[in-house]
Amino acid sequence: MTTSSPVPRTDDAGSDRPRALLERAATGRDSQAWSDLWTELYHNGSLEVAHPLVLHTLADMAQGDHADTAASALHLAGALLVQSDQRHETRNLRHQYAPEVARLLGAANRWRQVTVDRNDYCHLVEAVLNLEGDIHWAEDLIWGIVSEEYELECPDPDGCASLWVIIGERGFFSTAEDHALSDDDVETFPLHPAEPGTLEGLGRRLYDLARADGHEEIARALTYAFGEATCPECEQRFSVVGQVVARSG
Ligand SMILES: [Zn+2]
Q: Out of the domains of life, which is the source (predicted)?
């Protein structure tokens, strides 16, 4: 599946750099090009996200038949759109490039259904959410599923210490200390996963999606992310996802 959509003409003098980087990235063998794209488009903004080639070429890559290149393109495009939403407090970039965003989203949903690797799948779900643009904290939500832990603040207004919510091979619990770095005798509090039947909204949708796509273990992890944890300091129970949202500001 190759795309035949024409690359838009660009006449501005600064177009060589994005064109060159995107061409190198599209080969799928140049990780430095991807690193440079992230730096120059996302981190320092020295390249213009609204440049006509950027989302257009990323959409072409997403619709190509190389899974890794498509995943990289979807990840970057989703992050750029969410950053633009937040930076400008408008959805202008999404509106300006609506056909490209639609192509990216369609590709993300196709790749999601055929991706077996756990973490690759998680990043495609993140891309879907970022491309849809309804929430700005998909990265934070998915990061915890991938890394199997969330570092959060207790919602208590008096402020408890940071806490960790562990979801995965090390168990399902909250703790005041970074469990990975500490002795085994650290006090832990079991998590309270959501009953799948009671999930609503985004939790319901992501849970159903993961199961339909054959990722039972991710579906189970999501019941913890959309469930409750106990603060190790004040022992108050709170919504994990609620504090993920709170932390992402
Ligand atoms: Zn607390």
A: Bacteria
Calculate how far, in angstroms, residue 194's C-alpha sits from the geometric centre of ligand 1: 20
Q: Hey, what CATH topology would domain 13-136 get? A: 1.25.40
* pLDDT tens, position by position, 137-158: 999 999 999 999 999 999 998 8
pTM: 0.90
CA–centroid distance, residue 239 to ligand 1 (Å): 12
- Quote the ligand 1 centre to 156 CA distance (angstroms): 5
Amino acid of residue 237: R
pLDDT tens digit string along 165-196? 999 998 999 999 766 666 667 889 999 999 99
Query: What are the percentages of helix, strand and coil residues in the chain, rounded to 5?
Result: 55, 10, 30
Ligand 1 mean position, distance from CA 245 (Å): 17
**Ligand 1 centroid vs 74 CA: distance in angstroms?**
37
The full length of the chain comes to: 249
Distance 236 CA to ligand 1 centre (A): 6
Q: Give 154 Cα–ligand 1 centroid separation in angstroms.
A: 5
Tell me the domain boundaries of the chain: 13-136, 143-247
Note residues around ion ligand 1 (Cβ under 5 angstroms). 154, 156, 160, 231, 233-234
- Please enumerate, as own/partner, the contacts of 210-218 that have beta carbons within 8 Å and a separation of 24 or more: 210/121, 210/125, 213/112, 213/113, 213/115, 213/121, 214/116, 215/118, 215/121, 217/118, 218/118, 218/121, 218/122, 218/145
